């Protein structure tokens, strides 16, 4: 029997690899002769870098960059072994969680630190990038990131613009002559699960601006400024990406990646499954095991375990899922490719006790063992 495990992290309890290793122990207790492979799983959002560092043996690169409001931020990214690939999350440099509620300032918040992370990886030889762009504190159209990579944004007098959303409607021209030359040889794959355009009622400012501090009275002016910025970018590159699905992601960072860096925006789960080469492992698997902290009807709407299930079904494997908890409407997952799912909680307990890593590990191991004894 060949079993492939790709379980998303149980946030606050177990990392993806820890959950997989716990289930592996239980499976081997029940089926000592089984071939069991554990792979990391993430959705391109928070925790993706950690999952790939731990699961693929990547090197963790610590770095200090410029935070969203200019203060230094200590963060890190991962270098995947033997591939010249860097994995990073924009939120670790320009994320909303880096600011207290009273600090949110979309007019000043900048993605400059994201560009610094990319530049550092380029210097270290990386030419392939996997970047998650969820959870931003910014609405700057990617101007900050691009400045860090050598692009210049000039006002009508030929002076460098400021950063943040306050710069958008002051951009009159763009100088690309000093951009980092290695960018021509770089490939950017962006984990993006939103489909919003850059501007308009469904764009970056109107939909995601409020959580970053954009007030109702600010929306029209900022959205108009984003349109002005887009017109200059489109004229500079003779391309039109402002209405592209995902251009509005991360306050217009999706638009910047598309327009300036020829990036591809890919659903997060799809991008990560490709990065870990999961399909190669699944091709001859008998059973595929997945799961996450909580399974409900939203799991069935394209979250990471469903991506795993789709690959498994493509190759005729049975799919089992384990979760910290399940809801009544989680039965939707059965219609989305998961043959059976099981909560791992074994007795009445408090949430704190259930989420304690040692308890979660033991529960995952025990649940997997009992299911595979039946198999």
UniProtKB/TrEMBL annotation:
Signal peptide: none annotated. It comes from the Bacteria. Keywords: Kinase, Transferase. InterPro entries: Glyc_kinase_flavodox-like_fold, Glycerate_kinase, Glycerate_kinase_RE-like, Glycerate_kinase_sf. The lineage of its organism: Bacteria, Bacillati, Bacillota, Clostridia, Lachnospirales. Belongs to the glycerate kinase type-1 family. Gene3D superfamilies: Glycerate kinase, domain 1, Glycerate kinase, domain 2. GO terms for molecular function: kinase activity. This is Glycerate kinase. It holds the Pfam family Gly_kinase.
